[in-house]
Each structure stands twice: as structure tokens, then as C-alpha cells.
Amino acid sequence: MGIIKVLLFTLLAVGVFLVFKKIRKVSDDKVVAKSFGNKMLGCCICETHIPEREAIMHRDKVYCSEAHLKQGLGEGE
Questions:
Q1: Residues 74 and 42 in one domain
Q2: Hey, which bits of 2-58 come out as E strands?
Q3: Whole-angstrom Cα distance, residue 12 to residue 19?
Q4: What's the burial of 44, exposed, middle or buried (CB within 10 Å: 0-12/13-18/19+)?
Q5: Which of 8, 11, 25, 68 could form a cystine bridge with 63, CB 3.0-4.6 A?
Q6: DSSP state of 49
Q7: Mind listing the pLDDT tens digit for each residue in 26-58?
Q8: Measuring CA to CA, how many Å separate 37 from each of 34, 67, 68?
Q9: DSSP code at position 64
Q10: Do residues 21 and 31 share a domain?
Q11: Of 46, 48, 77, 74, whose CA–CA distance to 60 is shortest?
Q12: How many helices (H) and strands (E) would you count in the chain?
């Protein structure tokens, strides 16, 4: 009877391990997918590339900061 309990416990432990491993892999895949989904844009003043969500857009031009936006506006707009 003791060996059956050991085998059942071992099978249960392996099953729990496999479930946690699968859950962890799925969550890691989601993080990778999100990080590659960000489009990078180049500032029209300094050409520094920044994520699209952080860029300042004005008249189809991309700026990395308020200072470069002001600089761009002063150069002919």
C-alpha cells in the first residue's frame, strides 16, 4: 500500500509541475508579443528612435521631446 501512495504522489507532483510550466510559458509568450508590437519612430530633429506611444506627432512629423517640437516649429512653420 505504501508504494502506491508514493507513485500517486509522484504522479501528482509531476502533473502540477507540468501545469505550472505550461502556464509560465504562456505568460512569457504574451510579454514577448507585447514588446515586439511597439513601432519605433525617428525624431525629425535628432533622428533618435522612440516608441510610437511616446512620440510627439505634429503635421506628420515625429518629435522625441517638447524641446525638439519647439525647435521644429521655429524652423519654418
A1: yes
A2: 40-42, 49-51, 56-58
A3: 11
A4: middle
A5: 68
A6: E
A7: 655 555 545 555 789 999 999 999 998 889 999
A8: 5, 27, 26
A9: S
A10: yes
A11: 77
A12: 2, 4
User: 10 and 26, same structural domain?
Assistant: yes
41 conformational bin, left if phi > 0, alpha if psi -120 to 50, beta if neither: beta
Question: Is residue 50 a contact partner of residue 64, using CB atoms and an 8 Å limit?
Answer: yes
Place of cell 535628432: 46
Over the stretch 60-70, which tens digit does the pLDDT of each residue have?
A: 899 999 999 99
| Residue 54, C-alpha cell as written in the block | 511616446
Please tell me whether residues 51 and 69 are part of one structural domain.
yes
pTM: 0.49
Radius of gyration (Cα) for the chain, nearest Å?
Answer: 26
Amino acid symbol at 5: K
Q: How many distinct structural domains can be found in the chain?
A: 2
